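Human: Can I borrow your eye for a moment on a structure tokenisation matter? Separate attempts, laid side by side, tell us more than any discussion would. Could you pick a protein and write out its sequence and tokenised fold? No explanation is needed for now; the record alone will do.

Assistant:
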Amino acid sequence: MSDEQDKPVEDKPDAEAERTRGGERLAEARRDQQISVLEIAKELHLDEPKVRALERNEFEVLGAPVFAKGHLKKYASLVGVDADDVLTDYYQLTRQDSIPPIVIGRKRAQQEVSPGPWIAVIVVIIVAVASYWWFAVYSSQASTPAPAPQQVLEPQQEIAGDTVDEGTSELLAAEPEPEPVASEAPRQVAEQLEDGQVSLSLVFTGDCWAEVADARGRRLFYEMGRSGTSVDLTGVAPFAVLFGDVDNVRVQVNGIDYPVSSSSPGSRTTRLTITNP
């Protein structure tokens, strides 16, 4: 291709325009060294129109500024021109400062924390603690009967608004408390039992938790015995028995009183094995 197109089309009248800058400086050095535009284009891996645009300082044809500056530096090294001078011209032509502007990051607005996830976490923790208490604490308390609270006698009320006199108080104090209803004593049940079976009777003089199982492992009784009631059980001896308050229960085996007492000092709860007398 001819270099006739390399010549300037028109002369710039003022003194500032006579000084070649940027790509014009490179084009002048190329012509002085008699290097064709095609050779420069091959070295820069560009087509000829873009090389000519670079020489005319039409840098926007090359795309982003980084590409234009890169091609200017390589072009300067090919024709032996100081690359710093060419880049200085580039910054002046494009009205850019040699020092890149400092980009101040925009302060990110503080993100408001939603309370929803925290509320969900607190609810889960409360449910877990309640579940643990139910299975570990409440269940153990239910399986181990607590001794029945002692009954508190309320003070005797006044009769018809008048205070009970001394003689009436003595009569009331001397009146015996009613005994709980029990089966006939001694119990005549031996004739009605099958071979190997034993009759066990529990008479509750106060509230008492009771558990009774016979030698076959059958659970015969497992609940709170209420004051003033009695229970007749039949099974194969020996019986495994647990009383929550041994002072509130009387035991009879085949109609005969069977002595029971606490298994440890200071405790009313007892475990014992009752055999056939």
User: Anything to note?
Assistant: The radius of gyration is 56 Å. Confidence is low (pLDDT under 50) at residues 9-13, 152-165, 180-184. Residues 4-93 form a domain with the 434 Repressor (Amino-terminal Domain) fold (CATH 1.10.260.40). The longest strand covers residues 197-204.
